[in-house]
Amino acid sequence: MRPRGRDVRGLVLVALLGSLQGSTLVVSRFSLGQFTPLWYTALRFLLAGIVLVPVAITSGQMARRFSWRSLLIGAFVGVVGTALPFGAYVSSLQYQSSGVTALLLTISPMITLILSVLLVPDESLTSRAVLGTIIGLGGAVLLVAFRETGLDIETGDYRGYVLVGAGIVGMAIGSIVIKTCLSKEGVRTVAAVRSVIAAATLIVVASATGELDLDLIETSGWLALLYATGAGTLGTVLLQVKVVGTYGPSKAAESEYVTPLAASILGLVFLGEVITMPMIVGMILIFSGLHILSKSTQKSSFTDEPATESEIKAPEVLADQL
């Protein structure tokens, strides 16, 4: 039986992980007044790559496990599973609140599951997984049907929903590629390549669509960028590894319930966003679907054993670390 103090520490870490992810969305939306979405995201991943590349080199994993295959995997996931999703997520914040974007992102496991069944041999859906997916996606459809934005405007712009949807699909494809192709590759190598390629892709696209106007960027904008990189990218990686290693993967997945709550509340307090009844109902449906889905693949989040070192470096952790 797990000691009560251990359970409390686990809940605190999960709450902190979800809060970091949610607050990063709020900070990102705040930054859009000073950065264009693509330049903001490009600089964020450039800074993350500056940290990850030396880590990969000094750890020795890059030297021991480097191969063209890992390079190609990192490049593909960097473009499709990182640059596209995060560029789209931040761009969607032009049209909707941090809370709505975070809530829609919560259906990512459901989209990943559907694409896995379609793309990966021998993958199948249980009846419980189907039920959870239908309920969860129903919550997302509700938000779109009501054109909910979480902002004090009359009607939503469908571009926000389309951008989030495209990002979710890109992230899901990246996760599937990592899961099916990375089992014997250097994890830190792929992570470093992924971040650098994502930054390079975003810089090229951002340069083609608009200039980086440094005169518009105030100290608050640079601080927001540093927070998104340090806490939102690197900090969540370390914390997720800690939670997975100590409490098990499904405990770390519980942060998905916290992220929309944190984004909605912080957005309400600091950015004047709103929380509406369709958002609340949609959140209940999505959370219910996510809970059913998680129970279809995990016995219980409270019976997970701590992960081994190899499990901590598993593809599922790498898929979320950026």
Question: How many domains make up the 3D coordinates?
Answer: 1
By DSSP, the count of extended strands is 0
% residues in beta strands = under 5%
Largest beta-sheet details: none
Distance between the termini: 34 Å
* Overall mean pLDDT: 84
The residue ranges in which pLDDT falls below 50 over 5 or more consecutive positions are 299-322
Radius of gyration from the alpha-carbon trace, in angstroms: 19 Å
Please state the overall shape, judged from the principal axes of the Cα atoms: globular
The run of helices and strands is HHHHHHHHHHHHHHH
**Individual helix count:** 15
Counting copies of identical and different chains, the oligomeric state is: single chain
Which structural class do you get from the secondary structure elements?
A: mainly alpha
Percent range for helical residues?
Answer: over 70%
Quick rundown:
The chain is an all-alpha fold and 322 residues long. It has helices at residues 4-31, 37-59, 61-65, 68-92, 98-105, 108-119, 127-145, 158-181, 187-209, 219-247, 249-253, 255-271, 277-297, 309-312, 315-320.
Features:
mainly alpha
Task: Explain the overall architecture.
77% of the residues lie in helices and 0% in strands. The protein has 322 residues and is mainly α. The chain has one domain. It has helices at 4-31, 37-59, 61-65, 68-92, 98-105, 108-119, 127-145, 158-181, 187-209, 219-247, 249-253, 255-271, 277-297, 309-312, 315-320.
